[in-house]
Design a protein that fits this description.
The protein is of the alpha+beta class. The chain is built from 7 helices and 8 strands, in the order E-H-E-E-H-E-H-H-E-H-E-E-H-E-H.
Length: about 180
């Protein structure tokens, strides 16, 4: 079965540098096949016959042993990723308004977790937010629509306070990975 591993916090801001060739080799050493990476932020497509629930822990442990630091890993099957990309919860008009305000940046992001995200926890965490950015919780994902850049969003730090470890990718990256499947 095809899977995608999304690493959190590698090759960001000159820290936790990992060459993608070394990351692909780690996956090969773990016995996975068909390993490909996409961009430097740690998106790895691979095939495995292992049970999905065991993959993230196995990869995290091998990664730490190989590279000397921890990185949370979120794993999705190819079918799950196709569903995630095809299930954007925002109306086209909302997306167009965001894009027209600043067409030079990405506006849609998906935060991924290995565990179910409690919508009530998200609501409590984001209760103080009064801006125009929007989010929607869906099982193990949070969809985010930013009116400006994600770097300027006041909603993002509130989402990152949730107890579930999250890693984010913009929709352009997610669509490209789907096309690679």
């Amino acid at each position: 079965m095809k899977y995608i591993a999304f690493f959190r916090g590698i090759n960001v801001g000159g820290k936790n540098i990992v060459k993608m060739a070394d990351l692909r080799q780690l996956f090969t050493d773990l016995g996975f096949s068909g390993t490909e990476t996409y961009i430097q932020s740690g998106n790895v497509i691979f095939s495995s016959g292992k049970k999905p629930h065991s993959l993230a822990t196995l990869i995290e442990q091998a990664f730490e042993k190989q590279f000397g630091f921890q990185s949370a890993v979120v794993v999705r099957s190819g079918a799950e990723l196709i569903d995630i990309v095809g299930s954007l919860p925002f109306e086209e008009a909302e997306i167009e308004r965001a894009q027209s305000g600043n067409p030079d940046v990405e506006h849609i992001y998906v935060y991924l977790s290995n565990s179910k995200i409690d919508p009530e926890n998200a609501s409590r965490s984001c209760a103080s937010y009064k801006g125009e950015d929007k989010y929607r919780v869906a099982d193990r994902e949070i969809y985010l629509l930013c009116r400006q850049s994600i770097r300027d969003s006041k909603l993002v730090p509130l989402l990152m306070n949730l107890p579930e470890p999250l890693t984010a990718r913009n929709i352009k990256t997610m669509r490209k990975i789907v096309s690679m499947l």
